[in-house]
Request: fold
Amino acid sequence: MTDPDRIVVRLASPALFVGASADGTGADTDVVTDEHGLPYLPRHRLAARLRTGALSALRVAPDLAEAVDQVFGRSRSHGADRILRTGHAVPGDEVRAAVAHALAGRAEPIRSTLRRAVTDAHTTLESGIEVGPHGAPEPGRLRTNRVLLPGLVLIAPLTWAVPPEEEHWRCLARACLATDQIGRKASRGRGRVDVHLALPDDPNPRATTLALAAPPARAGEAPRP
Reply:
């Protein structure tokens, strides 16, 4: 089986990837975008959620504890103590190429207007009353949040500092399957995601991930394909 080279994140519900957008959108809580106005998931947030998923998966596979530390690092850093390397999770190549082409050669203020339109196409505004520290609404505190629309697919390139072994792939695959929410306000139904490993032009990333997540073959059984 050829090794996957990417992590695919599909939004199943509106999500808040809070950060600074290229031009600002006027919302109280903005969404992080790149220089072209396209939303993305920063690599450190993706790595943190994957590590949380890996730790939760240890409940049924405690033998993978050492692999979790090797893959994700004990300090959640991108330093030498972890062998997994991920990039930002960004829209696919075709989308980014089309947006870059549309912006190429554009002068201000047209360029900013187009960037803002790109952000608007992938997001929506939600309004609500701010909740105080005790969970009660704060009178007169109407806030707006810019959220990503469900259905958005983001792809993070995947590399390793050293060649991964079977238990490293199993650890990462289980971390992906256990990661079902990313972003803020997850307790309110936001940020539900499907996360899978994928090959280039993979027709079924879920099947790829499940195959890698499967427990090792017992004596006498056929090995993982």
Observations:
- The mean pLDDT is 86.
- The helical segments are 43-57, 65-72, 93-103, 110-122, 166-178, 205-213.
